[in-house]
Prior knowledge:
Elements: H1 20-27, E1 31-33, E2 36-38, E3 41-42, E4 51-56, E5 63-71, E6 74-84, E7 87-96, E8 99-108, E9 120-122, E10 128-130, E11 134-137, E12 155-156, E13 160-162, E14 170-175, E15 178-182, E16 194-195, E17 208-213, E18 219-230, E19 236-243, E20 252-255, H2 263-272
Antiparallel strand pairs: 1-2, 3-4, 4-5, 5-6, 6-7, 7-8, 9-10, 11-13, 11-20, 12-13, 14-15, 15-18, 16-20, 17-18, 18-19
Amino acid sequence: MVDSNGVIPLELGGTGAKTASSALSNLGALSLSGGTLTNALNIAGIAGNPYAFTVEGLSTVGSVWAHTVMVNGTPRFRAGVAGIGGAVSYQIAGRNNGTDAFSTMLSVKPGSVVYTSENTTKASDGTLKAASPVARIVKSQNENQRTDIDENDFIWCGCGTANAEAEGVFISRIGTGVYELTGSAGLASEGWQLLPPMDPGGMGELGIVEAEQTESGGLTIRLFKRKYILGDDAEIVKTKGEPVDVPVNSWIDVRLDMPDDSAFNQRMNQELQP
Length: 274
C-alpha cells in the first residue's frame, strides 16, 4: 500500500503526504493563512455535497472568529465570538439569501455570570430565582392546571415536581395545606428556601408558607391563608389564617440540600473521577 516515497496514496485511504501541511492540503482541509482560515472543506468529502464550512479570522470590526455554513455558495448559518468594547460576545445568526434572518447576541464582560435554565428556576409567578435542588409542591397532579410545572428537567414525584438535582425526593399531601417532602437533606443551607404560591398574573403571594424538619428527617410544609389584623399601633399586620391547599394555578417552591449519596451527586462524582 505504501508507494515508492513511503506514503499511502489517497485512493488507498492514506493522505498522500509525509507532513501535516501536505496532508491537509491533499485532503482539502482548512489551512491557516495570515490569521484567516481559508479553503473551505467540503463536508465528508462527498462530491456534489451542497454544504461547505468556512472559518473567518480577525476582522476590522473586532471579531475574533466566526463559523459559517455555506449552502450552494450562500451563507445560511453563522456563529462566532467577538471582542468589542472590552466585552466578549457570542453570536448565532441564521441567514436567508445572504441576509440575517435572526440573530441572538450574548454580551459577556469579564466577571459576568450568565443565567440560564441550568442555574435558575422559574417561580410560580414567572420570576427567576437562583437554582440548585428545587421542588415544586401542588395539591395533586390531577388537579394541577399549570402546564409549565414539569418544564425543562422537572419530573413528577408525587404531589409536585423536582429538578434533576433534587432527584429522589417525594412529596405527599397529608391534609389540607399540609405536605410532606422526603428524600432531601433539609432546606437549603444558604440562599432562599421557601416561596409561597404566587399569582401567575403578577398580583403577589397567594398564602403564607412555612416548613419544619420532622424527626424522621423529612420536611413538613404548611400553607395558610393570609389574614390581616389591626395592630396595637393601628398598623395592618399580615398573619396566618386557616390552612389552605395550593391553588391549582400555582405551586410552592422549596429549595433543598441533598444528601451526598443522592442520584445527582453520585453522577457528578462519577464524572469527576479520572
